[in-house]
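hey so u asked for the seq, here:
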Amino acid sequence: MNRDKTNLVNILEGRAKSEGFVAFGIAPGHLAPRAGERLRQWLQEGCHGEMLWMESRADERANPEILWPDVKSVIMLGMSYAPPQDPMVLADQGDRARISVYAQGRDYHDVVKGALKRLAGWLAHEADAGVKVFVDTAPVMEKALAQTAGLGWQGKHSNVVSREHGSWLFLGAIYTTAELEPAIAAEDSCGSCSACLDICPTNAFPAPYRLDARRCISYLTIEHKGPIDPELRPLMGDHIYGCDDCLAVCPWNKFAEAAAAHKAFLPRAELVAPQIADLLTLDDAAFRKLFSGSPIKRIGRDRFVRNVLIAAGNGGNAGVIAQVETLLHDPAPVVRGAAIWALSRLSPEKLDRRRRELLADEQDPSVRAEWDIAAGDSEMTAR
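ran it, structure tokens below
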């Protein structure tokens, strides 16, 4: 690599830091074949659940050169969202719910993509190179590329772990036609630690480095659209959007400093352990207002209230029973179904009365199934 290219990379890294990126590295425009092999095995096992887009564009995801044949280098960047306090201190408060740290501030897609576009625009001008930017919405294996670029390694929880920033990095990628010297790949430093695997409430890791999304609380509360498996609901606790448990217990977090986090990701006070009772009253307009500029807005009010109802059922707070009963009449079947389950946990007596009142007029098969499940659970409890 000549001096001009070296200077170009140095200047680019400096500009990346000024944009709020704390991690920078360069990977070649291709991935080792084993990355694609692991992806295809994961897909064949059905571990991606309803995320069908991962299956439909697996080849492009497995190798940058298939997505864009002209790519020569991939610039990987990371922004910190290290939280000001340990997310685990907010667990199991009964009347409150937990929202994943990454969703307590502004939508990272907007923040990271804006910074990437500015960097890519500068690179295109200075190097007369083609560029494309990606943030979590294209068939790009950001984690594998981040490890190849030296940002960190994929930990046993399958997310990137950094020596400097722990498990709290948002990733972004710039594909470019410029030929840049690749960094030295990061080495796995998890050792014998299994803290992230042991803490998982739903046992979503069949083995180290392997995640079964179908059991992951983040997948269930964000990607999964219908009723959640009744066997998993009690294990979800107070999580209503995402889950930080496996990230929060990572020992490498002790090196992460909240001061390094981008200011856009500072938590909004109303999203840190919000009251379950308040969230149960949200209609569509109130939901959109509360989560304006937040990634939570993407899942819509109905799916979100479904999640809150599960947390209500797990919290055991009798003070929300009236609100749960109101949601038995909600227009959305997924909300009515979750309300049935929550009421079965909070007040089996009221559930039986409500079942007699509402079941005959219920037309949705999924909601009728919830009434049947709840009735069966009540009979088992009575025995």
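The longest strand covers residues 73-80. The two ends are 76 Å apart (CA to CA).
lmk if thats what u needed
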